Amino acid sequence: MIAVDTNVLLRYLLWDDEQATKADKLINGSTHVLITDFVLAETLWTLKGKK
Q1: Do the domain assignments include residue 40?
Q2: pTM: predicted TM-score of the whole model, two decimal places
Q3: Most exposed: 20, 30, 40, 42, by fewest CB within 10 Å?
Q4: Distances 5 to 37, 46, 51 between C-alpha atoms, Å
């Protein structure tokens, strides 16, 4: 199992960088991926943006 951080999850979701392909291979690969509550919260906070 591998834990991913917020940057990896954002690259996968936004597909805004050449590293998105690497993130996709990691997340959709054969190895189990751990996404912690903190990473999810930080991802949502980042995607929400400024008001």
Answers
A1: no
A2: 0.87
A3: 30
A4: 11, 13, 24
Give the structural domain span for 31. 8-35
Per-residue pLDDT tens over the stretch 1-51: 999 999 999 999 999 889 999 999 999 999 999 999 999 999 999 999 876
Quick one: pLDDT at residue 7?
96
Angle 13-14-16 (CA atoms, 0-180°, nearest 5)?
140
Residue 47's pLDDT is 95
Please report whether residue 49 resides in a domain.
no
Q: How many whole angstroms separate alpha carbon 50 and alpha carbon 36?
A: 23
Contact 34, 2 (CB under 8 A): yes
Q: Provide the domain count of the chain.
A: 1
